[in-house]
Amino acid sequence: MSAPYAYSDERYVGVARFVFLVSVGSHALLAVGALALGDALLVGYFAVVTALYAGLRQARSLKSVVWATWVAFAEVAAITGLLIAGYGAGLGVLTLLFFLATSLFFVPVRLDAKLGVLALLTAYGAGLVWAYGLLGDRGLGSVADGSALLVSVGFLAGLAYYYDRVVDLAEAGLRREHAKSERLLHNAMPAVIAERLKDEPEVLADEIPAATVLFADIVGFTPLAASTTPQELLVVLDDLFRRFDRCVEQAGMEKIKTIGDAYMAAAGVPVACDDHADRACRLGLAMIEALAAFNAERELPLGLRVGIHTGPVVAGVIGEKRFAYDLWGDTVNTAARMESHGEPGRVQVSEAVVAVAPGHRFEARGTVEIKGKGPMQTYFLSGSAS
């Protein structure tokens, strides 16, 4: 299974690929030379190593690059053992053990199983060394010389354990930290925007032609804050806002932010949808019901004003530190005014919402003087049309 992490610095990837490319070229030339000499064993040896390096040249994961390093160490150890033990039968044994040990890295089995096989290969190599030595076959040289083969195989097993264990632990830690970072980022803003930010680190801004913005404000929060400790107050507010978060998710909307005891959400951003006004209306009614259940459980007299308005908005992320996804425009201001000029326990909406929310029923409130807007015809949301 490929590792999920790539080097963040492209320079390291470039260096690794260069090393792999040189290895591929050099081993390919050696294979051609062995072919010219008519040595089939050497041709096979260098051809397989060439293929290994060619495959690893495209590697970007940490473990793949470490594997390539291990292959290089293993080959050096094998060739060193070959030079000490002699060319004859020693080459065949070394080549066999080297490729069997190397191939373990490409088999998706547990580390314990890999180490067990490596131990068997080491024992097999030791047996061959002593057998050749006792029988007087000089193909592997004396027992003393042949022991170099055993040492090289044991060295490979040690490298295998070290790299596999250390890299597994390192990548497990990286995966955990990456998962934490992803969760934090996706909790701070919509998933679509979080992914875009990875590729667009500059100012991110979108013009949304039609969206619906909802503001909700807790009535009676100030007296509650004066009569409770800060810790108790935050526990109460956290419980309530978590319930609102679930309502937002069920309505298919995006939570934008909280400001003190106020809550802001939107529909139609960052992904457009045709029923954004109906979604916001469903959320408004759900929040009123959630607060009623909350008050009954905690025996509190809190109220909730909700305001909704529909129109174009600008959505995006600005700044360098503690940035967050936010909305701007007259639609946002008007939605906030719908809330502040509303009544506790009611959802006040603009005429624009009524025009595009066929799934709900409204009752006219009349003309209301809205700060910064002048007289506006507003409505109270009375329920679902079905």
Quick structural summary:
By secondary structure, the protein is α+β, with helices and mostly antiparallel strands.
Straight-line N-to-C gap: 51 Å
Count up the helices: 12
Share of helix, binned: 55-70%
Q: For the record, what is the CATH homologous superfamily label of the largest domain?
A: Nucleotide cyclase, GGDEF domain
- What class, by secondary structure content? alpha+beta
Q: CATH class of the largest domain, please?
A: Alpha Beta
Globally, the shape reads elongated
CATH topology of the largest domain: Alpha-Beta Plaits
CATH arch. level architecture of the largest domain: 2-Layer Sandwich
**Largest sheet, strands/sense/barrel:** 8 strands, mixed
The tally of strands reads 8
Structural domain tally: 2
Model regions low in confidence, pLDDT < 50 over at least 5 residues: 1-12, 83-91, 133-148
Mean pLDDT: 76
Query: What string gives the helices and strands in order?
Result: HHHHHHHEHHEEHEEHEHEE
Quaternary state of the chains:
single chain
Radius of gyration: 35 Å
- The percentage of residues in β strands lies in 15-25%
